[in-house]
Design brief:
mainly alpha, two-stranded antiparallel sheet, Tetracycline Repressor, domain 2, CBS-domain, 5 strands, homodimer, 3-stranded mixed beta sheet
Chain lengths: 465, 465
């Protein structure tokens, strides 16, 4: 695989930096922008700035546009002389410019903005007005649009002329000549295969084009592009005019970032924005500590709940032995349910109003799973007892029955909590993906102990308790 | 959003099926293949077969090619008369044909294969020889290739002629005229912007094309396409000839499927292949039960380990009160570490050989996190004691110190297990993503109890124990 080669190039870049600049330029000429960006990302900010400044201009722009540079580029650009930095930013595509300027605040931002051309500043003002997780926030304003009166041939000539500066030329947006409204989309494929004299309106799919609004969620844009196999989707305003486009590349980058965030969240870590190996020790502890401390505070309730049942534990120590097994069974079932629901929500298979439908599906499944584990729990005690591995005393049947019943209750409850939590979080305005496995487990731990000892109190009253 | 409309179309499709077939045809003419597929996926197999058979031929083929149909298409095609079914399959793209035939076995497969054209059968034989999670398994053999002696103009004419039947025409593969080896790739964009008299070798990027082999992992193909913003990547054999291409659409579909699998796995569920709401009750219980039962069997060890410390628990019931808090803190830290490592492995940020580097990063972070929680645990006991909410007796300092020390140990150990488990699983030939949060929690539960009571045995000997 070609990727393997790139890892070795970091020291090489650094070495070349101290040598002949022409040699550096020659080496990187053979490298792809993504590989240079990857190598640069491993350098310190000051070394990275030196390398970027030494690169051929076009390559430097491409490197800064790569997702690998996203983390450091504001820092890198602030170390490059203002004029050069301004020219580099000016040459970047509008969506990347907006992304960059979101990371820069205060004086630095004003300083950089002043270096940009008036056209760039105006485009940026529009893009920066949208939230970064929306279509408006990830779109680019560099697309090809032609009037609906043009022919295929004239459109192709136009593309040949202006195509170089556009993010994509594979989708061409056909606008109503007077109102500027989007009326049609043709693909470069259709154009290439058409008679040059045919009007662009005659080509391609006759259905109204698929569009999104600037406020459409980034994930919904990704779903649309993926579902209909699009190369780009236009973002239109209320009057139907094209504000920009989101391309499949942007969507893939967004998907990868989103996926990382979701996995981290489900593991109860605040999403790391940089590769695992590049995150500083302090940052790593912060990102993990917040959730661990919150979960610990929640988990303290288990000690309080257990304290309430101290007499029962003193009287029947054997009950304490099964606490970890019982509460973790609840936590496991809960984590399962949560992961299923979070994913189904992310894929829009289920919506906010489906909670009762999910509840109706979960209940029988949970009861069945609880019964299976309950029977296993009963068998565990009886087998150990009759095999002589452990003496559960004269009331072993009652103990086994208590454990079994508690398991059914805890597993059913865990599944209920795990499946409903994402809905509750969404209702409260949080990301459903924040319902992490440890969060669910902690919730179920507390209630699981209460369920367990309540079942015990009822079943063992008068015998063991 | 346009997707919202599609949900309403299922009853409509069913209704139209019983009415005038022309009416059905007219309705679906306005629908996109992905929407029809989504609606069809909600029908029973026999109703779906009727709808597909009633669709215009080209649309029926497209519907069968949609990812939404993947689950049911084998079933649907088996209910359509052999000749029609054969023609539909024949018209599908080779990658989808291969995917379909993988789901069909035995007699049915032989029956269907016999209906296909000899050309299709030959192409299928090649594709089916590759594993489904490799580049060979998801590639299509329909791409545009031209000899290296052609000009841009001649290539464009060729595309206009043959383009209709190709999966993509945006990347054109330039082959050495004598050996058939891939020497260059040009984009339709480059061709459109070029002088028609220029040779294709003069256009576009002069670097050797990015390629993969048929055995390249599907996820690595996705990473390559996403990293270098490609629209397709060629799959080449040892002699450098192009066997097929993988397009960005295929990669997005694969990413969505992979992502779902990973989320489900991390939640300790076997990946559901169908939407949450469509999975049958039996299947749902199976998919979840397997892991729950295995985890329960593992969790049983907690009862045995606790049994070994029964005397300690009897003597100091207060120790039992903190068991859930301590072991869940270990489980939480472990789940965090696992989610970070799994994701970093999936992104190839870290490889199999990086386990010691990860260990070196995890240890200080884990010790810090453990110390934070340890101090909180000590405070919890002392505050409760001095506030008079709970009487920890004369040895409250010692108890607090025991809990604190155990927390440091369990959290550090949890982080160690959580970060190393994905490496171990990979070494053993399993998917690292199988290191689910509940799996880690169960592992840490068992050892956490042992750590806790060992610390207690050492610190409390002679006083409380």
């Amino acid at each position: 695989m070609n990727q393997a080669q790139s890892s070795g190039s970091t020291p090489e870049l650094l070495y070349l930096l101290h040598g002949d600049p022409h040699e550096l330029a020659e080496t990187v000429a053979h490298m792809r922008a993504a590989d240079v960006a990857e190598a640069v990302a491993r350098l310190s900010a000051s070394a990275a700035a030196k390398v970027v400044a030494a690169l051929p201009f076009d390559l430097a722009v491409q490197v800064l546009e790569e997702p690998e540079s996203r983390q450091d580029r504001a820092d890198i650009l602030s170390r490059i002389p203002g004029e050069t930095a301004g020219a580099l930013i000016d040459a970047m595509s509008p969506d990347e410019q907006a992304d960059l300027l979101r990371d820069i605040t205060g004086e630095e931002r004003t300083r950089l903005l002043r270096r940009l051309s008036p056209g760039t500043r105006k485009a940026l003002k529009l893009l920066l007005s949208y939230a970064p997780e929306t279509a408006g926030g990830i779109m680019t304003t560099e697309f090809v649009a032609v009037p609906d009166t043009w022919t295929a041939g004239r459109t192709l000539e136009h593309i040949a002329k202006v195509g170089r500066g556009k993010e994509t030329v594979y989708a061409i947006y056909v606008l109503d000549e007077t109102s500027g409204r989007l009326v049609h989309v043709v693909s470069l494929r259709d154009l290439t295969m058409a008679d040059p004299r045919v009007g662009v309106l005659e080509l391609g799919d006759r259905r109204a084009p698929l569009t999104v609004t600037p406020a459409t969620d980034r994930e919904d844009v990704a779903r649309l592009i993926s579902k209909y196999d699009l190369l780009a989707v236009p973002v239109i305003d209320e009057a139907g005019r094209v504000l920009g486009i989101v391309t499949v590349d942007d969507v893939i980058d967004a998907m990868v970032r989103e996926q990382t965030e979701d996995v981290h969240k489900f593991g109860a870590v605040q999403a790391l924005e940089a590769p695992y190996m590049d995150v500083s020790y302090i940052r790593m502890v912060q990102k993990r500590g917040v959730w661990l401390v919150l979960l610990f505070l929640g988990g303290m309730l288990t000690a309080s709940v257990m304290g309430a049942f101290e007499t029962e534990i003193e009287n029947t120590v054997v009950l304490a032995l099964f606490i970890p097994l019982i509460i973790s069974s609840g936590g496991n079932t809960g984590s399962q349910a949560t992961s299923l629901i979070i994913r189904a929500m992310a894929l829009r298979e289920i919506g906010a109003g489906d909670w009762w439908r999910v509840g109706l599906r979960e209940m029988p499944a949970a009861l069945t799973l609880g019964s299976i584990l309950g029977v296993m729990g009963v068998l565990r005690i009886l087998v150990w007892h009759y095999a002589g591995w452990y003496d559960y005393g004269p009331h072993h049947m009652l103990i086994a029955f208590t454990i079994g019943t508690a398991l059914v209750g805890v597993v059913t409850f865990g599944s209920f909590v795990g499946s409903m939590l994402p809905f509750l979080l969404r209702r409260l305005g949080f990301d459903p993906a924040s319902a992490s496995a440890p969060f669910v487990a902690t919730l179920v731990d507390v209630t699981g102990i209460a369920i367990y000892f309540s079942v015990a109190a009822i079943l063992l009253r008068g015998t063991l308790l």
